[in-house]
Structure formats: structure tokens, C-alpha cells
Amino acid sequence: MTGLKKSIPAIAALALLGSVAMPAMAADAPGEGKTIKMAQATWDTGWFHSEIYKQLFEELGYTVDGPTTLDNPPFYQAVGYGDVDLWVNGWFPIHDTYRPAFEESAEIIGAVAAGGALPGLSGGQGVRREVRHQDA
């Protein structure tokens, strides 16, 4: 991959967007002619994030191969070897045990939920009433 630092981001697209914050005329397609090999986690709740970032990279002109679905150990090994460039499903510090596999060739950039997050449901009053009713 040329011109884009290998990364294991939780928020790679936003980091990339921030690094190309120049007039739109000058950077209509900063990724033109460049290919990103993307991976995604095996858990389906991560697929939504992967698709959003894939589309953002494509809007920036990058060709995106994948995402290829991988479990944690194979992904971190693959990014360490340069077989894939990124995924947006890193859970740090939970995934810190995988750092030796990629530390010399990739880095962690940003976080979707700094400091962690709690799983839950968001919705209007009707949804909340329904959930409370189900829990009773």
C-alpha cells in the first residue's frame, strides 16, 4: 500500500479525513490509484462500522479490497505481515495481547469509544417503555 500508513484503527477513516483537511478542489480523490486491503472482525456488530469506513475510503478515491472476515489472531498476524492494511474492530486494551504480532509494522489510531462503552439500546419513549415491559 502506497501513501497510507498501515494502521489498526478503530477510527481510521476519520483520522485519514483529518489528515487531508485541505480545500476540496485540491484533494477531490486523495486515494486515487491506491488500494486498501481491509479486514473485518467475525462478530457481526463490527460489520456495520467496516461498511461505513469502506464507503468513506471509496468516496476518497481509494480502491478497497474486502473487507475480509478474520478472527482476532489471524487479523493481527495478517496486518503484521502486510497481508491486510486495516480494520476498524480493534478493542484496546482488550486486544493488547496481540500487540507483539503487529507493533513493528502497524499502529493503533484513535478510538470509536474512548475509555470504553456499554452495550445498550437507544430509542424513543415507546422503545424504552417496551423494553421495560419486556424486562418486568
Q: Kindly state the mean pLDDT as a whole number? A: 75
Strand order of the largest sheet: 1-4
Structural class: alpha/beta
Supply Rg. Answer: 17 Å
Q: What's the oligomerization state?
A: single chain
Give a brief outline of the structure.
This protein is α/β, with parallel strands linked by helices. The chain is built from five helices and four strands; from the N terminus they run βαβαβααβα.
Q: What would your notes on this structure say?
A:
- The chain has 136 residues and is an alpha/beta fold.
- 34% of the residues lie in helices and 15% in strands.
- Strands 1-4 form a two-stranded parallel sheet.
- Strand 2, helix 2 and strand 3 (63-70) form a beta-alpha-beta unit.
Keywords:
34% helix, disordered C terminus, two-stranded parallel sheet, 4 strands, alpha/beta
SSE map:
Elements: E1 7-9, H1 12-19, E2 35-41, H2 47-59, E3 63-70, H3 72-81, H4 99-102, E4 107-109, H5 125-135
